[in-house]
Amino acid sequence: MQLANHHAHSHFSDGRLTPEDYLKNAIDQHLLLYGFADHAPVPIDNFGAMTMKQLEGYLMEVDRLKERYGQQIQIYKSLEVDYIPGVINVHSPHIQAADLDYTVGAVHFVDRFADGRPWGFEASHENFQKGVEEIFEGDIRIAINRYYTMIREMITTHCPDVIAHLDRIKKLNKGDRYFSEDAEWYRQEVLETLVLIAGSGAVMEVNTKGFYKGEIEDTYPGKWVLQVARELNIPVHLSSDAHHPDDITKGFEYAGSLLKSISYRTTRIFLDGSWQEVELEPSAIYTS
Fold first, then answer.
1. What digits encode the pLDDT tens for the residues 52-92?
2. H-helix or E-strand containing 131?
3. Which residues contact 170 (CB under 8 A, 6 or more apart)?
4. pTM
5. Domains in the chain, please, with CATH?
């Protein structure tokens, strides 16, 4: 099992309990490193991101934890930064000023309803369908294209260190309710995005949240996407996207086995202050 997690959410955004609670759990599990990556401030209601006023407190708290627990575990400071054109990206002034160790980039919102509300595609089937109908002319292919186009824009213009949950737009698609991942048009969208990731130097996260929460039967991204990523030599690592301290390594055994089944032997983690390839097996990580 990979003994590191780079993506989780405390009570500073939409997670539960304090950053210290997460860190104590990480120490109890003998992780080598733990990276805090709460949602960066965004001007969107009911998303669960921290406010600009909370950002300073979050950064100070991570620094405090580094001082207190730094001899027991490596601690890193990050944010999950939404890419919203003209609104926020990893190069926004407040993100740059945060002096982060690394950045996690994601797309959670795709275009807007007529009243200006952003379309968040994870909330409910009703909201998902309403967005497709009102914003994308009732055509799921247009909606999917826009999602992956935004990810590609993020990669080419404001690339983060880590690409979060690449195919998260499939969260509500259990049973191919809205589209088939086997469709040629869908696979072409993903392939085009993977080629950009391969040339960017970014790490692609294998996010286990959908698996251990029962949202889907796989990871974000899923097996076939990871098979292509392996062919393109895209570096990956495991992240749980935990919203509770008990979840910081959930799904790691499954995801690690999945990666090994498609010939991944290493993950890339932020160890000793730099991105390093480490073996998936714990013994190899301990001796790095």
1. 999 999 999 999 999 999 999 999 999 999 999 999 999 99
2. helix 125-135
3. 181, 216, 220, 222
4. 0.94
5. 4-286 (3.20.20.140)
